[in-house]
Write a structure and sequence with these properties.
alpha+beta, nine-stranded mixed beta sheet, 16% helix
Length: 340
């Protein structure tokens, strides 16, 4: 009989253990399923997170030339700005006029609460990357989720003040540490966001972070309590007389400028009790044309006071939202650490 030396046996066992650990390491798909969020909406919410294709089926692709003049361009959807002389060069424009108010959008678009969609991607964080605001240790992986809504139509409680734009991208991110354990969650909110330690995040089934989605704006919050919108974050890009006018409109609204949340339309991972399944689509930007669209997802953004936009009570806040940074390896330094 041939005997195996103790040293050889230890080495074989170590290799076997390493192989088992490697085989057990979760894949990006596993991670996306593990941390898929649960979304809760205000009962008056009119827009559900939808597949991008629904929006593209209605929107017209336009090119800017000269500045301020937009003309339709033929398919396919642009994925490059080669040959462009202006920025933004392209935009997607729904068949409604933004300055006519939201009635056309409500009439032309229909939310589908039975087939909501969330997009996901797992991104490794390079060594030396700074940690998110409020943290001292950077994550090893970012588990990103993106939600798309056809329209952002935030309004104050008595509908005196409105902020509206076509096409609305919102995000939820879970940061995983070196051991694979979650460190934090980061939720997008009105041109900014909040980062919360994982231990303080409300969760379903231990791993699914709960986001309370604000009425109209679709900002994601960690609590259902009415929350200051931090509108000043969105006014940073408005300059000169437009900025002064925007501040006056906010003052004239004579209401606390807050986001309102609720617990209606619960959406989440399939199989989770009490929620409508939120279809998770793992995103590969290299294989998805719309994920490389180099333009804006709407005709613009406006802030207005009153029942509908009028020239004296309306401020343009610039272009619509741009395509998200799918491979972002950091949480923006401009976001806010959670307080309290």
């Amino acid at each position: 009989m041939r005997f195996v030396s103790a040293a050889v046996l230890v080495a074989v066992l170590a290799l076997a253990g390493a192989s088992r650990l490697e085989a057990a390491a979760p894949t990006p798909s596993d991670l996306l399923r593990t941390y898929e969020p649960v979304l809760l909406f205000h009962p008056d919410e009119e827009w559900a997170p939808e597949p991008v294709e629904s929006y593209l089926g209605l929107a017209l692709v336009e090119r800017q030339s000269p500045r301020g003049v937009w003309a339709a361009v033929a398919p396919p959807l642009p994925t490059s700005t080669v040959g462009c002389t202006l920025s933004p060069c392209f935009r997607l424009d729904l068949p409604c006029a933004l300055r006519s108010g939201v009635a056309c959008y409500v009439r032309e678009l229909e939310a589908d609460w039975q087939h909501p969609v969330v997009y996901g991607r797992v991104v490794p964080v390079p060594a030396g990357t700074p940690p998110p605001p409020g943290f001292t240790t950077p994550p090893k992986l970012l588990v990103h989720y993106w939600l798309f809504y056809a329209l952002d139509d935030w309004r104050s409680a008595r509908k005196r003040l409105w902020q509206t734009h076509e096409g609305d991208w919102e995000s939820i991110t879970v940061g995983l540490g070196a051991t694979g354990a979650p460190l934090f969650a980061a939720y997008s909110e009105h041109c900014s966001g909040t980062v919360q330690p994982w231990r303080a995040v409300t969760k379903r089934a231990t791993t699914h972070p709960v986001a309370y989605v604000a009425l109209g704006s679709h900002a994601n919050w960690f609590s259902p309590a009415a929350t200051n919108t931090r509108f000043t974050e969105c006014l940073k890009g408005v300059a000169g007389s437009a900025a002064s006018k925007a501040k006056r409109l906010v003052a004239l609204a004579q209401e606390q400028i807050v986001d309102r949340m609720g617990a209606a339309h619960p959406l989440g991972p399939p199989g989770l009790p009490g929620v409508t399944p939120l279809e998770l689509r793992e995103l590969d930007p290299a294989a998805t044309d719309w994920a490389r669209f180099p333009g804006r997802w709407g005709e613009g953004q406006i802030l207005w006071l009153g029942s509908k936009p009028r020239s004296l009570t309306t401020v343009s806040q610039g272009y619509g939202p741009s395509t998200p940074r799918w491979n972002a390896a950091t949480v923006s330094a401009g976001w806010h650490p959670a307080t309290g």
